[in-house]
Amino acid sequence: MQYKETILNNINHFIQEHVIPNKLEIIATIDMATELEFDNLKLVDIYFDEATTHIRSTYQNTYTTLVHVFQIGQKTVELSIDENISFEGIYPLDNYNIHFSQEDGTQIDLFDENFVDFGLHEYLNLYEYNEIIGELNLIYKFKSESANNYVTELEDIKKCIPTITHIESFSIEKCILHFPNDVSMCVDVSEIKKTIEKYKQKNK
Fold it and tell me: Of 56, 42, 35, which is closest to residue 12 (Cα–Cα)?
């Protein structure tokens, strides 16, 4: 996918230009960074997922998160940014509950000390995310690109419900199913995947 590759290339360029050349400065300010294998640091994948907050909002308690998969030597680390806070700030994916409002300058509510990224997210948060990615609009272009890609993956729903004429991407989380006579229905992607999986299990 075009925009995915652009983001991967831009962030890896940022690592080469701003992280690796500043390894001594990083180590001097972040103790954990002494174990960071700078020369083997690379962003290897990005993908959209959903995050759930621990407090309910008046309008939602789940929203889209963009996950960054970093390779650090032999270790893989996942860091995330979230749409709810306009994709600002990057932090560990596996160990947080997210507030709907920033408190004390952080989006992390609970921090698991067992999570180890060797201080990478602390250093990255010294920069605005648009400086790291190159252009913030790339996220929204990649999101649209990813949504269109989901449509191809969901084509098997037509085997379950033959009256579906076509599928239209709506967002990462939802798509629109079209039926004859201009009838349409907005459905969660997760629900479609479950229906497809049940159909496949039943028709093995």
Answer: 42
